[in-house]
Amino acid sequence: MKTSVKILAIIALVLSTNYTQAQTRFGIKGGLNSATFAISESGVTITPPSRIGFNFGGITEIPLETDFYLQSGLLYSTKGFKINGESLSTDNLEIPINALYKLSVGSVKVLGFAGPYIGYALSGKAGSADIEFSGKNKDMNTFDMGLNFGAGIEISSFQITAQYGLGLTNLAADSNDGTMKNKVFGISVAYLFSGKYLRY
Asked: pLDDT for 16-61, tens place per residue?
């Protein structure tokens, strides 16, 4: 708990000292996911064929230092996999928290970013059957956490990015059944509106 308080205090200090004349931008983002799971049991790991899904939502970008930014948002993202002609799919809300670096190359900015994400499964299907996320007979866990890594380019108000999301949480409801973790490759396009200056 003390560590969490210290982290929040540091974040508050950064906000108060660096955001006085900082230009924060808000935008919309959408794209495609190529998703699968890493499924491990008895020391054997398999990765089923990917399932194509999508992502969309709102994002915000806050400058920290020269060329460094904090980018977060709230995204709707579909994940899952295919196996033996059947699909497992989940509908998720996701909050990414990425540290973003921009390198200017002429009129284009090259982007690199990384950071954690927190996810929550709203619903899901295994074939035609609904996936249960609660109760004694639940099939999968609801919460997911992981890491995002990505790169892209920014041209004017547009950002085109590719990213890889590595799930760290075991989504299997019963750990005796092994582990199930998300693995998602995504391509997205974002449009960022003109920013406003924060004054504290």
From this structure: 444 444 688 999 999 999 999 998 887 788 888 999 999 999 999 9
Which CATH code for domain 23-194? 2.40.160.20
pTM check: above 0.85: no
Two structure tokens written together for 32: 């495609």
Going by C-beta distance under 8 Å and a sequence separation of 6 or more, which residues neighbour residue 39? 45, 46, 47, 48, 178, 179, 180
Quote the DSSP letter at residue 172: B
Q: Give strand pairing partners of 100.
A: 69, 113
* Residue 96: closest CA among 7, 8, 184: 184
**DSSP line for 63-104:** EEETTEEEEEEEEEEEEEEEETTEEEEEEEEEEEEEEEEEEE
